[in-house]
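Quick start: read one record
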Amino acid sequence: MTVDALTDVAGLRVGHATRTDDGWLTGTTVVLAPPGGAIAAVDVRGGGPGTKETDALDPRNLVQKVEAVVLTGGSAYGLDSASGVMAWLEERGRGVRVSSDPAHVVPVVPAAAVFDLGRGGDFRARPDASTGRAAVEAAAASEPGAPVREGCVGAGTGAVVGVLKGGIGTASVVLASGITVAALVVVNAAGSVVQPETGALYGELVQGRTPYPPAEVHEAAQRRLAETGAKNGSPPLHTTLAVVATDADITRAQAQKLAGTAHDGIARAVRPVHLLNDGDTVFALATGAQPFADPHPLALNDILAAGADLVTRAIVRAVRAAESVDGAGGVWPTYEELYGGRGRRG
């Protein structure tokens, strides 16, 4: 049984830590690999990334597997949340062994941050090591294959996309080969997810999903968005983050390709994308539970195509699951609020 989430890749667990009180509107999400880790890669396309340990994932470098990936709010400050995840892993002897003593490990925990500073009203309210620990503990406490909460949770708590509220979405598929591919996305983009002429979600259009919202609903929504944008001003920085995962036994170089092609899924659902004030980053994870020994050089294509498609679908789900915010840090309505839930989920 699948739950249409990243956790359909057996062994992966997801945990959120969320803060929404006293000026807070941020959080951290941790993707926890099975013991022993997972093959990992990354592809950074945005012009303003906030990342940690991404160079270690280059296939030319030493590190073979990672124990966790951290997605967090708080911009560069929020990368401190990875320290809490590292401490939790070290306590359990999980990481790269650096001596004969099994307790001497260095957990490699790549991380990436979205910009959400001040969206709850307090610029200094941002994730730290304790937030990261709370998120990894939540992941570890979850059941295998558990559903993943979507919307304004974890790293998606303070996310916005254009002048709409963003959040977290996830999706998965089992290919004809039996290989599972899945994605989890934090949607916090400078661009828009809405086609300006019709009000339809770009991500639903590429999936062939209709109908379009009624013209009068779209006109009212556009007026509301214009008013909201003028009130909030233009937030300076954004970033969309994704983790794309598979249970296929692929190489680090193949995982690198998966991370790269998954960016196409962002480009289909958000326009424009990969701007200088975005930090768009995609991680790829491979647990290796399913053999992938097809000698044909194009055998990877099904996994690559699925990864991009799932990122698009996860973005749609994030936008539709979001909850509106009207607080000290700004006002961000949701797509569902403006368009009355018209159209179908991704």
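The radius of gyration is 19 Å.
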